[in-house]
Amino acid sequence: MPITTCVFDAYGTLFDVTAAARAAAAEPGHGALAAIWPKLAEDWRRKQLEYSWLRAITGAHTDFRAVTADGLDWAMAAAGLSDPDLHRRLMALYDRLDAYPEVPAMLAALKAAGFATAILSNGSPAMLDAAVTSAGIGESLDAVLSVESAGVFKPSPEVYDLVGDRFGCTPAQVLFVSSNGWDAGCATGYGFTTAWVNRAGAPVDRLPWRPAHTLADLTPIPALARSL
To answer: Which tens digit of pLDDT belongs to each residue from 200-222?
Structure first.
């Protein structure tokens, strides 16, 4: 069955999650970040994901902005930083993360080829709206789907159900793209055709399912979708 719908994770896939810490480190008054921002960004992202998994497992759901703030709290404490103004600035910058350079042209190519396009993200609706608007990619998206509609974080099947609910397609008609190996793997188990955007060259996650395709960036997605 041919692909009709291309669905993307947001953070780390379309949007560069290191951009907030990098931008803050370059601003006046944030000299303490200059040497440590890569580690802070890494810790922030890791804790953000870990807390989302733990909340999903325990049923203690909250919106992704709160999870993101909790992850930043931990990362700043680990770095010996306790400046509330810096915390507020980093959270504000997270609302306008840079999109990866190939994203606008890639999405436009998919739309021109007749594919439906969407984001499926842990992000709250307000966070996603801000990021999409900042990146200027809204016209290339048919839907921005948030886990808040399901009340649980990825990789719950209830989240992946949102795609079929919105587009009336079967899992076999969906190309799901994520920079998170665990997300792509679990989406494979759900029934999506998957592409893992492995920008860092990381090893594949040891899960019962693996991504169907592995790419270095998003540039090949339109050609891949047409070939399936």
So the answer is: 999 999 999 999 999 999 999 99
Q: Which helix (H) or strand (E) holds 7?
A: strand 5-8
pLDDT number for residue 58: 97
**Residue 66, pLDDT score:** 97
Please check whether residues 110 and 74 belong to one and the same domain.
no
- Answer yes or no: 9 catalytic: yes
Give residue 31's pLDDT band: very low, low, confident or very high (50, 70, 90).
confident
Which of these is catalytic: 9, 16, 43, 98?
A: 9
Give yes or no: residues 77 and 186 share one domain.
no
Give the contacts of 139 (CB within 8 A, at least 6 positions apart): none
CA 157, CA 154: separation in Å to the nearest integer?
A: 8
Specify the number of domains making up the chain.
Answer: 2
Can you tell me the mean pLDDT for 168-177? 97
- Residue 1: is its pLDDT beyond 80? no
Q: Are residues 216 and 106 in the same domain?
A: yes
CATH, residue 181 = 3.40.50.1000
Q: CB–CB of 204/183 below 8 Å?
A: no
Which residue blocks in the chain are alpha helix, DSSP H?
Answer: 19-25, 37-58, 64-78, 84-94, 103-112, 125-135, 157-167, 181-190, 221-227
Report how far apart, in Å, the C-alpha atoms of 67 and of each of 44, 51, 172 are.
10, 6, 32
In a shared domain, residues 52 and 9 = no
